[in-house]
Specification:
The chain is of the alpha/beta class. The chain has one domain (about 10-215): Vaccinia Virus protein VP39 (Rossmann fold, 3-Layer(aba) Sandwich). The chain has six helices and seven strands. It has helices at about 35-45, 55-65, 110-115, 130-145, 195-200, 210-215, and strands spanning about 25-30, 50-55, 70-75, 90-95, 115-125, 150-165, 175-185. The chain has a seven-stranded mixed β-sheet, with helices on both faces. Helix 3 links the parallel strand 4 (about 90-95) and strand 5 (about 115-125). The protein starts with about 25 loop residues before the first strand and ends with a helix.
């Protein structure tokens, strides 16, 4: 737990000033068995109401000891519904749990269900050899949902030194690390979804693109 130093957090806009009229932004996360990195960064960006889920009672107890989460519940993502109402969260994160033998790709619609229109989803997976089949299945599922208009891709970023490899054959060119990828998606607003799907604008890093913190500050 906690081996990921908040990957993707720089791509999620802050909860304020766009949340005027509300006390704070609300985020739901499953972060590498409830690590602390992304949760701390989300809190710094104004998401003061953090909820967390994990399939392990021990990991939930460890997360409870950090004092970061307002609510923690046991949930095996992919086997049962998330313990939250529809369209409730400004941001939903799954960091370090999307992988072979972990959370299945079939859980993606459930993540979308609890995300507010205009909200963000931050997902990650590993790119080491033993996870490549799962990664291909995940990216196919992500693309299908995008084609259906369920969300819009904001970012897909490869990270070479994602985490330390547990086996040498899994590492990138003998570096001792495995690579990974961060995906950021945005659920369309109810009144703007069609226009956003037709005219998504430049991607991060392209000519004319503006920082995500500016473009989506009002979410």
């Amino acid at each position: 737990p906690g081996s990921h130093p908040a990957p993707g957090s720089h791509c999620i806009p802050g909860a304020s000033p766009g949340h005027r009229g509300r006390a704070e932004g609300t985020a739901l996360g499953q972060e590498h068995s409830q690590g602390q990195g992304l949760a701390r960064e989300l809190q710094r960006r104004g998401f003061g109401c953090l909820h967390g889920v994990d399939g392990s009672a021990g990991m939930l107890e460890r997360a409870r000891g950090t004092g970061l989460y307002r609510q923690l519940q046991r949930c095996v993502l992919g086997r049962e519904p998330l313990p939250g109402p529809a369209e409730h969260y400004d941001a939903v994160t799954v960091v370090g749990a999307l992988g072979e033998g972990q959370v299945p790709c079939s859980a993606l619609p459930e993540l979308l269900r609890v995300t507010k229109p205009g909200g963000f989803l931050c997902l990650t997976t590993r790119s080491n050899p033993s996870n490549l089949r799962y990664k291909a299945e995940l990216e196919a599922a992500l693309q299908r949902l995008e084609q259906q208009g369920a969300w819009q891709k904001v970012l897909a970023q490869e990270v070479e030194r994602w985490e330390r490899a547990t086996e040498e054959e899994e590492s990138v060119q003998g570096t001792g690390y495995i690579s990974g990828v961060v995906y950021i998606y945005r659920k369309p607003r109810l009144d703007q979804g069609r226009r956003e799907r037709l005219a998504p604008g430049p991607s991060p890093g392209e000519a004319g693109a503006v920082p995500l913190e500016s473009r989506f500050w009002g979410v």
